[in-house]
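Reply to dn_fold:

You asked what the input looked like. This is it:
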Amino acid sequence: MAGIVVGAAAWSGAADGSPAAPHRDVQAERILHGREVFDFKSLSELLATSPVVVQAKVTGVQPGRTSGSEETGGVEQARDVTLQVTDTLKNYQGATTTLVMEEYGWDADGNGYQVENVAWSNVGDTGFYFLRKTDDGQRWRLVNTQSRALDKGGWLQSSAEPGSELAAALTGYQPDELAFQIRWMLDKKNQQVLTPLAEPTEVTGPAAESPAPDSGAEEPIPDGSTDDGSEPTPYPSSS
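and this is what came back:
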């Protein structure tokens, strides 16, 4: 997982079909923080550094791969988000027009969580996704938590932290305008405006397993969370 580090265990498929937890929250109840590989300040940096950029619509969400073990603190489970690609803006050469994007999901107790400002994907979401392949070579992930911009009624909402330089740079874009700007920046005549960020040297050993520093701030609750002690609830929910 190159984009963000929240744990050291490798993801694996649940070959025996057993769930990672007996129940899974139907929505994220917590927001976790992690160490980011990249910190983009502009669309130029984000676009130049992202291997693949697509416009897409979410057509399905289901439990995905598991990671960890009881011996290492419990088995967590990701969410598999099916994206229907509506426009290829940079380098996507998939054999089909759909791809599976992996996002964070449930802890060992089935509690749902999101990382930073990346709210859980929902069927019907449309927007821009800046992607890279995962370690299994089959799924995709956001390059980092700044790397999604959803269409909210004709205006784009960035997953970058509100008030950050990148969020400010994307504020006010309509989807057609951003698609045009991306194509303009990727045109060979204009590529001098692109400023890719170098990927830092991979951290190994104990430093790679250490948690992100605690800022001391109270852990935030996602918008719409019940946070009422009723979770975890069965997945999928009948309510």
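Confidence is low (pLDDT under 50) at residues 5-9, 229-239.
Hope that clears it up.
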